[in-house]
Write a structure and sequence with these properties.
Length: about 300
């Protein structure tokens, strides 16, 4: 099971809604040990490796009926709400939430299907565009790869030199430190006569959003992925007058999740640049402390 940024918000007490006690963990997979005798699913067998689609949706609301199941109004999420997540030795999961993995699949990577699904939901429909990604931690690097897979030109910005080096290794067309005072000049020089079609903000603070609004072309798209920790005042007049499309990207659909699994299996997504740190499940507190001090690492708990 992976430790996500939202898990860290809960652990650090800055999530305004979710408070302990709660069993965290929505990025998880495992091996089937027991199946209900009432099961009608013949695809899942004992011993099967699976990734867990962590959203439990009603299937009846407007959004579920119209294939927007990530926006279900009655949604519950493993590791959130009252549903215990994957940071435990065993967890009961509805069969419909299980996604089969090949026998050869390294079970450690089952926890990466969820973040790849996040990236797929953000960027899989963007093609042949000039894109800026702000923040290339785990999610940003995965989004970058989905963008490159779809023949986009990608510029990445971060304040962490190691993250930028990883981004460069994954064929970013241009990497720039966000603190560079000449970043706009460098971007414009790289673009020539072209413009930025889409900015994907994986940070979500005042500075990154102001930059996004100022760099995007008229009628361009700004996609918010990073969750702001505070309220942010935006230049609404510029958004209005330039007809900027500002939208969020929230979770993923089951189709996104299945695609993500296939992308990993078929090596469409290179996870070698995701810097993993693995802890035993019984060292969970140590893992959270480590994650606090190493936010660029992808921390995974293994039972």
């Amino acid at each position: 099971v992976g430790i996500c940024g939202s898990d860290m918000h809960i652990y650090n007490g800055v999530n305004p809604v979710l408070k302990p006690p709660i069993v965290l963990g929505h990025e998880f997979g495992g091996i089937i040990e027991e199946i209900s005798s009432n099961s009608k699913n013949n695809q899942i067998k004992i011993g099967q490796k699976v990734a867990v689609f962590p959203l439990i949706n009603c299937g009846k609301c407007y959004y579920c009926i119209n294939n927007m199941d990530n926006l279900c109004i009655n949604q519950k999420i493993f590791g959130n709400d009252e549903i215990s997540g994957g940071m435990q030795e065993k967890v009961a999961v509805p069969l419909k939430n299980l996604v089969k993995l090949p026998d050869s699949f390294d079970i450690i990577y089952s926890s990466l299907v969820e973040p790849v699904a996040v990236a797929t939901h953000v960027a899989d429909d963007i093609k042949d565009s000039n894109i800026i990604i702000i923040g290339v931690g785990t999610i940003g690097l995965l989004i970058q790869q989905v963008c490159k897979k779809n023949n986009n030109s990608v510029i990445t910005l971060d304040i962490n030199s190691l993250s930028l080096r990883k981004s460069d290794n994954l064929q970013s067309d241009l990497t720039i430190n966000f603190k560079d005072p000449n970043k706009v000049k460098k971007i414009l020089k790289f673009l020539g006569k072209n413009k930025i079609d889409t900015v994907i903000d994986c940070v979500g603070n005042k500075h990154t959003l102001e930059f996004s609004i100022n760099i995007i072309r008229k009628k361009g798209n700004i996609i918010l992925v990073g969750v702001p920790e505070n309220e942010i005042n935006l230049d609404v007049v510029k958004i209005l007058c330039n007809e900027i499309n500002l939208r969020g990207s929230y979770l993923y659909s089951f189709d996104d999740f299945y695609k993500a699994k296939e992308y990993i299996i078929n090596n469409n997504i290179d996870i070698s640049e995701i810097d993993l740190k693995i802890f035993n499940l019984f060292k969970t507190i140590d893992a959270f402390k480590y994650k606090n001090n190493h936010p660029d690492k992808k921390v995974i708990l293994k039972n």
